[in-house]
Structure formats: C-alpha cells, structure tokens
TrEMBL record:
It comes from the Bacteria. Residues 25-59 form a coiled coil. Keywords: Coiled coil, Signal. The keyword Signal applies. Residues 1-20 form the signal peptide. This is Uncharacterized protein.
Length: 194
C-alpha cells in the first residue's frame, strides 16, 4: 500500500513538473511572438527568449527514451527519469538492486549501472585490491553493463568507455580514488577524485 501511495505521489509530481514546463514553454513562445521584429532591443530580447526556450526543451527527457525503456525493461514501472547533458537516465529497482539505464540522443540504450557489493567483484580482483590497496577503505561498487549494439560511449567519472566493468571507490587520508575492474578481474587505476 505504501509503495502504491509513493508511486502515485511520484507520478503526480512528474505530471505537475511537466505541466509547469509546458506552461513555461507556452509563455516564452507567446512572449517571442509579441515582440516587434523591427525594434533592435526587442530583437535582442527575442534572441534571449529563444535561448531560454531551447534550454528548457533540452531539460526534458525524450518521450522516445521512455518508450524504449518500456520495451527494454518490461514490467519495470517505478523508473524515475532525469536529463543530463549527454543522456536520458532512468533510475529504478530490479530484483532488489538499484539500477540506472542510460539512453543516447537517438533514444537507444547505451548501458546500465547496478549498485553492487565488494564481494560481487571477481575473486582474483578482490585479492589484487586487498594486496595493493590494503591501506585504503573500500567504498561503493558500481557495475556497468554496456549495450554492445550501441557505439555511443558511456561517460563515467568524466571519462568515456565502452566495456562491461566494475568501478570501486577507495579512500585513503581523505582522498577518494576510483578503480576500474574488468569482468576478468584486471584492476586498473581509473581516476583520482577531488
């Protein structure tokens, strides 16, 4: 019952936000139409308003991505959507795991991420990490599953890549770093975080 109430609340919030954006779009379009094309000041204002309208539209998640998600993840109804600079992202739960699916500008699945545990890493990788990074505390583990049918690269921690990998955050003396672990257990120092 609690889940149903939360889901209804989320749907209502999403609808309210989309309605607010639609009203904002209509208002900007109306303002653009009302400006005199011959007046230089109004011409400049029109240009600014068009930029605002474009920015507003680029913040919306593509309906095609949402439709594709329904096809890709049959039965998942609890997805929360957000738009990033490069991707449409759906966050959801599947079989008890927190996941996210990423779609490119053509609404094609790039890949998914899943929150995992340290014990989910390949055993040989765990042994290497325990030996080489024994003074580090282990943080969150994320598994990235690439859609091999899509050539678009995923960005993770600001770097592009296109293979199935685990990512482990490690911490030492207040400095956070990220290790990339292949599915075969190879451990690669990926990124130092600020």
């Amino acid at each position: 019952m609690k889940k149903v109430i939360l889901l209804v609340g989320a749907v209502m919030l999403t609808f309210a936000v989309s309605q607010a954006q639609t009203v904002q779009e209509q208002k900007l379009k109306s303002e653009i139409k009302s400006l005199d094309k011959k007046d230089k000041n109004e011409k400049q204002e029109k240009k600014v308003l068009r930029k605002e309208l474009h920015k507003l539209k680029s913040q919306e998640v593509s309906e095609q991505s949402k439709s594709q998600f329904i096809k890709d993840f049959k039965g998942i109804t609890n997805a929360k959507w957000k738009k990033s600079d490069s991707f449409d992202q759906a966050s959801f739960m599947k079989k008890g795991y927190a996941m996210a699916a990423f779609y490119d500008q053509d609404s094609k699945l790039i890949g998914t991420t899943t929150i995992k545990k340290y014990s989910d890493l390949p055993v040989n990788a765990q042994n290497k990490i325990n030996e080489k990074y024994k003074e580090y505390s282990k943080g969150s583990v994320i598994y990235y599953d690439d859609n091999e049918e899509n050539v678009t690269n995923m960005l993770f921690y600001g770097k592009p890549f296109d293979k199935d990998n685990y990512f482990l955050e490690i911490l030492k003396n207040g400095k956070k770093s990220v290790l990339q672990i292949t599915t075969e257990g190879e451990v690669i120092y990926f990124e130092s975080m600020k």
